[in-house]
Amino acid sequence: MDQAFAGMLLLPGEEGPGLAAVLETVAADVKLLTGAEELGSWNVDDCNVTAAGKGRFKVVLGGEMVMFTPDTPIQFAEAMTIPPEPEPKSIPLAARIEAQSPGKKKTKAEPAKIEPLKSIAKDEVLGRTLMFLILAVSSALIVTLLVLTSAI
Questions:
Q1: Which of 48, 50, 53, 148 could be a cystine partner for 60, CB 3.0 to 4.6 Å?
Q2: Average pLDDT of the residues in 74-94
Q3: Which residues pair with 60 in a beta bridge?
């Protein structure tokens, strides 16, 4: 079936709106036209069309690649028998951040081990000597404060 698809044509690496073009299928040939000028005609077997995202298609014509953005991408994909692109799924923000974190390995969190308190050993920060010293200084301060307040 003969069909024609208007759209914009870009060469690989080009940016911008592109060149207005028509990609036409006639019998067993594919033609590429710009205005009244024909850029070329190729056998269908020498053409390969793949989806490139956002309504754009990578079209390889006889070994040369161009990017084609048709005005009607769904009809173009159906005519070229290209499976439609799946709708992008909504991914939670936490999953996107985790996926973008380089070098971060996914590991399952293990529950923390809780150990009972042990008696104070010699090598701990607050050993018996330090505890005794703190109690002695505190007691001396309390006695000094009591003496001072009773003298007033």
A1: 48
A2: 71
A3: 48, 65
Q: How far apart are CA 8 and CA 81, in angstroms?
A: 20
Q: Provide the token pair at 109.
A: 């969190």
Q: Establish if 92 belongs to a structural domain.
A: no
CATH code at position 53: 2.30.29.30
Dihedral sign computed on CA atoms, order 34, 35, 38, 41: positive
